[in-house]
Design a protein that fits this description.
Blueprint (H helix, E strand, L loop, with lengths): L3 E5 L4 E6 L9 H16 L4 E5 L17 H20 L4 E5 L2 E3 L1 H8 L2 E5 L3 E3 L13 H9 L1 H10 L3 E2 H7 L4 E3 L4 H13 L3 H14 L4 H15 L3 H13 L10
Parallel strand pairs: 2-3, 3-4, 4-6, 5-7, 6-9
Antiparallel strand pairs: 1-2, 7-8
Helix pairs in contact: 1-2, 2-3, 3-4, 4-5, 8-9
């Protein structure tokens, strides 16, 4: 057993658990395992994914003892980009279940997910500036896309921790839950999503993620391509036929 554990559940949910005592510090080894785990979920997608750091903490950030000079920064930054990029590229709905602290690289991991369910006493942030450095795992790019440019700058430049209520209010997280319900809520939501037309869900994710990185015209073209492609799936045939025969919301999808 390494630092990243994968459980493929009977309900179609893949549970990815970080397990590196004491604070889930994101070392080279953990990042490599996370990248490989995410790549496996890209190659063989489940119905949905939950990323969990355990009951006490999501992830406190990078393993500071591995820092050095520019050469080490280049290596560690590359590992973060590869690992979190792979998480973001999973063609299914990915939920971060956040308890305790999600700081630095831990916050960046949550940002790479599609939805964030957060404990009511959790704290998030990008405190790299307090070490005299900047975020290197996507924080400067993903955070402003969620909370806006000015607010993201303030959070990163002050290095302050954002409490759960504020995080919900500004869009950094999407749902709050009591600490002992965070994982169960995330798993329940993921299981519900996994019963849907998961290939089409992946196309929605691709259209949104790719389109927001480009122009409106390009995004509309990409949507059009995926709209055409989705009609090749069994689920599109099932869904349309079910609507015509039984009305909306009654289809039973196969995930193909």
């Amino acid at each position: 057993m390494g630092f990243v554990n994968l459980e493929r559940r009977d309900d179609g949910v893949a549970l990815v658990t970080l397990d590196r005592p004491k604070m889930n510090a994101m070392s080279r080894e953990l990042l490599t395992e996370l990248r490989d785990t995410a790549q496996g979920l890209i190659d063989s997608p489940p119905g949905a994914v939950v990323v969990w750091g355990g009951e006490r903490i999501f992830a406190a950030g990078a393993e500071i003892s591995e820092f050095g000079g520019p050469a080490e920064a280049r290596e560690i930054g590359g590992l973060f980009r590869d690992a979190l990029g792979a998480v973001a590229a999973i063609p299914r709905f990915v939920i971060a279940a956040v308890t305790g602290y999600a700081l630095g690289g831990g916050c960046e991991l949550a940002l790479a997910c599609d939805w964030r369910i957060c404990a009511e006493d959790a704290r998030l942030g990008q405190p790299e500036i307090l070490l005299g450095i900047i975020p290197g795992g996507g924080g400067t790019q993903r955070l402003p896309r969620l909370v806006g440019v000015a607010r993201a700058k303030e959070i990163m430049i002050t290095g302050r921790q954002v409490g759960a209520e504020e995080a919900l209010r500004i869009g950094l997280v999407d749902e709050l839950a009591p600490k002992d319900e965070v994982l169960s809520r995330a798993l329940a939501k993921a299981a519900d999503v996994a019963r849907g037309a998961v290939v089409a869900q992946g196309y929605v994710k691709a259209a949104v993620d790719e389109g927001t990185e480009s122009t409106l015209a390009w995004g509309l073209d990409r949507e059009g391509d995926l709209f055409e492609k989705v009609f090749e799936t069994d689920d599109a045939r099932i869904g349309v036929q079910s609507f015509l025969e039984n009305g909306p919301g009654k289809a039973t999808f196969t995930g193909r």
